[in-house]
Specification:
By secondary structure, the chain is of the alpha/beta class. The protein has one domain: 3-Layer(aba) Sandwich (Rossmann fold), CATH 3.40.50.300. The protein is built from ten helices and ten strands. The strands form two sheets. A six-stranded mixed β-sheet has the order 6-7-8-3-9-10, sandwiched between helices. The chain has a four-stranded antiparallel β-sheet with strand order 2-1-4-5, with helices on one face. A hairpin with a 2-residue loop joins strand 1 and strand 2. The chain starts with a strand and ends with a helix.
């Protein structure tokens, strides 16, 4: 098991956001977090990567306890994040954005370099000297994914993987994530596109009010259309 989250409770001050949430991500699999806005998806991600400290419960990555560690140590364990809003460095060019995070935290299990990232995203090769704030939204998302891959992570987390992108760009991003999956990296995805998620993902968790309301594989998700109206509709 790549990641195991066990009964975590997370608070913002005195306001509780997660209530005994548990989930597992198998090595080499793609897992999704689904749910309406405000249900705890991003809080779950922030709890995993160390941006928020869980008040109770435990998180294990490759059998090492990571709950309680600061974010930089969690990253060094081999977890890469593509955050909501991309958060690329606007005053660095594409090349600088990518090499700024270069590392090999997987200890050779993956081999992402500047060249392999640019092979995955040819559009970035053409924009190497452009500053981060000169890129389109789609290019910025490619850069954010490439930057996370430059860590050579064993687990890649994407918060709102294709939010705000044009349909053709979304289609390209989904294909690239499928290609990344083939390299053996585990992936945790947050997105709203059920059709594409069901094609790429192996397992799904629906979060409702800070806890897991439903879990199952893609066949089970597609076979229960009431889940969409009950847990995912506006």
């Amino acid at each position: 098991m790549s990641l195991s989250v066990k009964n975590i409770e997370t608070f913002y001050g005195n306001s509780q956001a997660l209530f005994g949430l548990s989930l597992d991500i198998a090595t080499g699999s793609v897992t999704t977090l689904l749910g309406r806005n405000g249900m705890g998806k991003t809080t779950t991600v922030n709890s995993i990567i160390g941006n928020i400290r869980c008040r109770s419960g435990e998180i294990f990555f490759n059998n090492d306890k990571i709950s309680g560690l600061p974010a930089y140590l969690v990253a060094q364990k081999g977890i890469g994040l593509v955050p909501e809003g991309r958060q690329i460095f606007p005053n660095l060019n594409v090349r600088e954005n990518l090499i700024a995070t270069a590392a090999n935290y997987s200890q050779g299990k993956t081999n992402w370099t500047l060249d392999t990232v640019l092979d995955l995203f040819p559009a970035l090769r053409e924009r190497l000297n452009n500053m981060g704030n000169q890129l389109s939204g789609g290019e910025q998302q490619m850069l954010a994914i490439g930057r996370a891959l430059m860590l050579n992570p064993e687990l890649l987390i994407l918060d709102e993987a294709t939010e705000g992108l044009a349909p053709l760009i979304r289609k390209d991003i989904w294909q690239k994530l499928y290609d990344v999956k083939q390299t053996g990296i585990s992936i945790l995805l947050i997105d709203k596109n059920l059709e594409e998620l069901s094609r790429i993902a192996d397992y799904h968790y629906i979060i409702e009010k800070g806890t897991v309301a439903w879990q199952g594989d893609s066949d089970a998700l597609l076979a229960a259309p009431d889940l969409k109206s009950r847990y995912l509709g506006v």
